[in-house]
Amino acid sequence: MTHLNKKPRLEKNLTVNHIDDLPDDLVFSILRKLSSSASCPADFFNVLITCKRLNRLGLHPMVLSRAGTQTLAVTAEKWSDSAHRFLKLCVNAGNIDACYALGMIRFYCLQNPVSGASLMARAAIKSHAPALYSLSVIQFNGSGGNKSDKNLRAGVALCARSAYLGHVDALRELGHCLQDGYGVPRDVAEGRRLLIQANARELAGSLRSYLSLKSGDETLTELNGLQVQEIRPVNRFLKDWFDSGRVVLAEGLRMCSHGGCGRPETRSHEFRRCSVCGKVNYCSRGCQALDWRVKHKMECSPLDLWVGAAAIGVGDEDVDAVEVENHAAR
């Protein structure tokens, strides 16, 4: 009889949740580390659903304030009110990456430019380089408003600050602005120096990714025989959001043709168009130059330019320079 009574007590002891015995500061430390290093939102949420205590502590501002870009990388396919609430919780916790991500989603996808720009501004005030660059693109285009709302000087100032913080796209954009005299006094030599610096940083980043990740990793993509980094989570969200057809752009509005961007127009003829073929549109000079180098160079059909160049013996590099200048003149 005594033996039979011991067995149930042993089974009961095996079901004890030892997580409840851990001190809060240790659990907070583990969850903060997880939120900053998770490779996707699912990795973080799979831990939170383990028990009520982890769920409660995992949604604490101390944890959400440390959430990294991959933890915040909600996909367009899985967008829901719950995903929106999660990002808002992170914003309220002071997470500047969440301010930027939710700001971009609200500005372009949810068609709430006032709230979106406000959230990006909160991140920009704290020197968030991608937010500064995105606000510069908005200023260059007058996005969310009228053509008269363009502010080229403000766009250059925001772009310069983002470039100073190391944002490669901003560095490239600033180089083109200086080279073309767009919103800033023209300085061709300084513009070319910044463009070379942007290309060097981009190449260094691609090489680091190639050396640190195994071949065939999902975070890399094959492009013209070279492996480069995948597009950023927020830009991927924008691209997938509009490609999925869940929101149809108003008649006359176009998407940026650079595959790594995802920005749509907020009014007709907001983006500049290729001055040669007239078939592609770009939200910025940076996107224009990137797409030309990666794809549009092979798709554009300036037949008269190529034939004329061949007739007078102009090299490929000179033709490329003429084409990019034609694009930038738009």
TrEMBL record:
Transmembrane segments: none annotated. Residues 258-300 form the MYND-type domain. Pfam families: Sel1, TPR_27, zf-MYND. InterPro entries: At2g35280_TPR_dom, At5g50450/At1g67340-like, F-box-like_dom_sf, Sel1-like, TPR-like_helical_dom_sf, Znf_MYND. It comes from Brassica carinata (Ethiopian mustard). This is MYND-type domain-containing protein. Keywords: Metal-binding, Zinc, Zinc-finger. PROSITE patterns: ZF_MYND_2. One of its GO terms (molecular function) is zinc ion binding.
